[in-house]
Hints:
Elements: H1 7-30, H2 32-35, H3 47-54, E1 62-64, H4 70-76, H5 80-87, H6 126-142, E2 153-158, H7 165-177, E3 181-187, H8 196-199, H9 204-208, E4 215-220, H10 224-241, E5 245-250, H11 270-274, H12 278-288, H13 293-316, E6 349-350, H14 352-366, E7 370-374, H15 391-395, E8 400-402, H16 407-419, E9 423-427, H17 435-445, H18 448-451, E10 460-466, H19 481-485, E11 491-493, H20 498-510, E12 514-520, E13 536-537, E14 551-554, E15 565-569, H21 573-581, E16 588-592, E17 595-597, H22 601-611, E18 614-621, H23 626-638, E19 647-651, H24 661-667, H25 671-682
Parallel strand pairs: 1-2, 2-3, 3-5, 4-5, 7-8, 7-9, 9-10, 10-12, 11-12, 15-16, 15-18, 18-19
Antiparallel strand pairs: 6-13, 11-17, 14-16
Organism: Chishuiella changwenlii
GO molecular function: branched-chain 2-oxo acid dehydrogenase activity
Protein name: 3-methyl-2-oxobutanoate dehydrogenase (2-methylpropanoyl-transferring)
Amino acid sequence: xxxxxxxxxxxxxxxxxxxxxxxxxxxxxxxxxxxxxxxxxxxxxxxxxxxxxxxxxxxxxxxxxxxxxxxxxxxxxxxxxxxxxxxxxxxxxxxxxxxxxxxxxxxxxxxxxxxxxxxxxxxxxxxxxxxxxxxxxxxxxxxxxxxxxxxxxxxxxxxxxxxxxxxxxxxxxxxxxxxxxxxxxxxxxxxxxxxxxxxxxxxxxxxxxxxxxxxxxxxxxxxxxxxxxxxxxxxxxxxxxxxxxxxxxxxxxxxxxxxxxxxxxxxxxxxxxxxxxxxxxxxxxxxxxxxxxxxxxxxxxxxxxxxxxxxxxxxxxxxxxxxxxxxxxxxxxxxxxxxxxxxxxxxxxxxxxxxxxxxxxxxxxxxxxxxxxxxxxxxxxxxxxxxxxxxxxxxxxxxxxxxxxxxxxxxxxxxxxxxxxxxxxxxxxxxxxxxxxxxxxxxxxxxxxxxxxxxxxxxxxxxxxxxxxxxxxxxxxxxxxxxxxxxxxxxxxxxxxxxxxxxxxxxxxxxxxxxxxxxxxxxxxxxxxxxxxxxxxxxxxxxxxxxxxxxxxxxxxxxxxxxxxxxxxxxxxxxxxxxxxxxxxxxxxxxxxxxxxxxxxxxxxxxxxxxxxxxxxxxxxxxxxxxxxxxxxxxxxxxxxxxxxxxxxxxxxxxxxxxxxxxxxxxxxxxxxxxxxxxxxxxx
Length: 684
Ligand SMILES: Cc1ncc(C[n+]2csc(CCOP(=O)(O)OP(=O)(O)O)c2C)c(N)n1
């Protein structure tokens, strides 16, 4: 990035960029019949602060630029042509290959700042971006390689987005941990049509001051030189002192909110806003510095001409091909085969919870980029199930630490951690409390690889203790896999034995994609009758188990003498099925899915075809469940082989699992209920 020395050179550079951004905005408006096909927003009115920021970033810096930041993107070095390819959702769109909207960047170029995937959900970038800063800090504390000139993180936000709860989670963590991040808030006092006085009790400068340790600078964001100076000061502090700063930049919104909404419909401040146009101010600055009006006009003309040619070229560029749809759902994983020793000789059985713990212990010993965080996983407790016991003692508080009760932060920060090359293993305390983090999982984690066209897969493991166990009651018993399996772009394991849990945890770690480990609390210690076999010999350190390979728990030949049935299940269902099978000699086959995504369809279909009868068994409430979707798949693919309807046994469709053990038992499946269904199916 060139160093800008003299004020006049700087002003000219800024002016060129501002005029470029303005020309784009005007060109899009003039051609709205064409450009309006895909919704877009432009920076018009916000350009000065954006350019002042973009000009000062280094290639090692990380940037989250929101949908109004096209001037910022120009300032870091993105060309108008590249932006227009995104405007028109063309195949060569450098950010997403035509998958996402204008000015929704993702960039991984050697010579430019790095931009992880940016969603349209307002404010939601605050957590992932704060995760980047947390990753930078981790690398510095742990002595991992980093640049001589330390990198910083910029999180750009609109003012209205800052009232969102997740933004508070991000500020809290940045202040608490003193992270190297700049929050740049562009305050135009508009939400879409809602004005500041309707939607906020105070502006961001007042609000942010409540976060102790987050310093706030305010600036007139239409004044280029003032903006440049304040950004320079903030960046210098962050680079050297490694602490968070928020810049509150007041700006007018001069264009429509987006191409989909007309400002004339609801704005009553257009004249006042126009009086603060940063374009007029910058032009005056140039004239005051003695630049001739002819030179200024020449700059404008050249830019307008270039932008028009770029637009014509962008129009001619090709659309994505239909087959492009299928690329980059997941990044390829190196683990494709089972390897290592699953049951080394001379070892005692290990309970499931320890198999997971030992897997993580081995991973952390081997990989300094592995770290673990979540609620209560730190030194004092090591997890409410002791599922992380001893880890903090062994690896220290940088690598294993407690977080506040912030499920959104726990999950969403992994996007940033992964972007800087770390491998976060995180945990929500109970499946029942995954909901506050679901937005980050859906909006950010799951879509990053796909919408960045394969540039930014998120490598993370999310551990989720799940399932009903000993009257856990309505908020410590829920199953959530049907919701999770509906989120495309994440892998999901649901092991039922310690050996599988260890092998899958290892495999998840080496997988470049997000992985959720659903760990049944009722199997953790094999305390419940019938679950003894969840405890297994602990596989050796090299053991890995690829995703998408079901386990044949009980294999039975089909026979012309009698009917037989296969039970497709996972988690606790494996043990209900094993118990029930004892009553049916040579008539039951049991398949344990082990991973729900990807799903081992081949093993399911082969088993169904062999036995012609099938039950899908789940602990989850039945209606609209993942289990029902498997039943649907079986019907689609094995119909000709079936001698009985595919049946699903799940929990009763109640809003929650009641606390009282009588009610709990009535609600959940068990081996007795399963036996009765098996009889029906065998006799069908
Ligand atoms: C979570 C979420 N809710 C609603 C929207 C719809 N929406 C798009 S932009 C916007 C207003 C955002 O205002 P602000 O953050 O101040 O940024 P500005 O557009 O004014 O620059 C809204 C409500 C969204 N994109 N994301």
